[in-house]
Amino acid sequence: MASSIATFFNKFLYLLILLLHLGCFIFTTTTGGKKAPPSKKRKISPSSQPSSPSHPKFKTHKALSSSWHFIKHLLSIKSCKTPKTATSQLSPQSSAATSTTTVSAAAAHSLVSLTQPDPDRKPPGSCPESDISADTNLFFPLRNDIFPCTACGEIFQKPHLLETHQTLKHAVSDLSGSDPGHNIVQIIFKSGWPESKPSPTITRILKIHNSPKILAKFEEYREVVKSKAARHGALTRRRDERCIADGNELMRFHCSTFLCDLGHSGDSSICSQQFCNICGIIKSGFSPKLDGIATLSTSWRAHVAIPDDVEREFRFMNVKRAMLVCRVIAGRVGSDSDDAEKADGGFDSVMARTETGVYTRLDEEELLVFNPRAVLPCFVIVYSV
Length: 385
Hints:
There is one protein chain. This protein is an alpha+beta fold. Helix content is 37%, strand content 15%. Among the domains are: 117-170, no CATH class; 171-384, Alpha-Beta Complex (Phosphoenolpyruvate Carboxykinase, domain 3), CATH 3.90.228.10. Strands 3-4-11-7-5 form a 5-stranded antiparallel β-sheet, sandwiched between helices. Helix 5 packs across helix 7. The termini are far apart. The relative contact order is 0.11. The chain crosses the membrane at residues 12-33.
């Protein structure tokens, strides 16, 4: 008898707790504690009462739905893009690994693979470490977003400030002797040097970290050259497969001078001196005002393009020379600068003449490129002879 009474009492207690729990959702409060002004009553049919907004069941369902959506929004977290997505956005750049150069195909493929961005190096404007964003979180708006530098940890409030910081302070990185890329670039640099000439002494090899804007311009120009080559092939029935495939990408050398201590003791920043040509090219690319950007097939020919007495005459300015290893979208190569300047010429670059005025093979002479977007510097070789 006592056990049956205890069982009945427990069931009654559970039912009472359930009713109290449901009652918390039924009795809703008005916003701000103020009652809404009484509205005029109108007769409605009983069948329409459940769908009326003033019906208690509708109020309960609306309150539960609003509470649930509010809780889901609070628990939602802004997710960052994974490195795999960032890599897939730069996949057009990886197609450049099929380009052929004057050196062996294996060395050229390794060189292009070395120019790919580092997986740990996030581009400016990417998702920061904090998951809270004022753009998507409507309940907790922040005054400013934060954009940390993944290299040094410095915090910026605008994405363009972060991009400027990385362009100036983390523009290059030193390739040590144990790095496989160091040996590849060294072999490519010295392979074009004549054995009869004094061998160059490499001081350091620096890898250039081009900004996403510069990389995007380079790939956009490639697509322009490819589409133009396809249209030209359809009109003339002479398809240039190299231009259609990768824009006729080549590996070329460009020699210039610099004034600062670029890359010394592991320094990754570049200077802002007006006459420091190498730092200016790394920061903003080649100048569009130049009457053609000269690129050569070997490091030796690029070296002799600058007179030997330049360093001696401007020693008071601490002038030094360096070699840029570049990727160049040559496109359709013309053999006459006059034809290339015509609107209907259709040439993207021009093969220069020799001192005797005779045209030579592309691999032996300089190539003039008129669009600065077509040249992407990848490595800086600081050397002396």
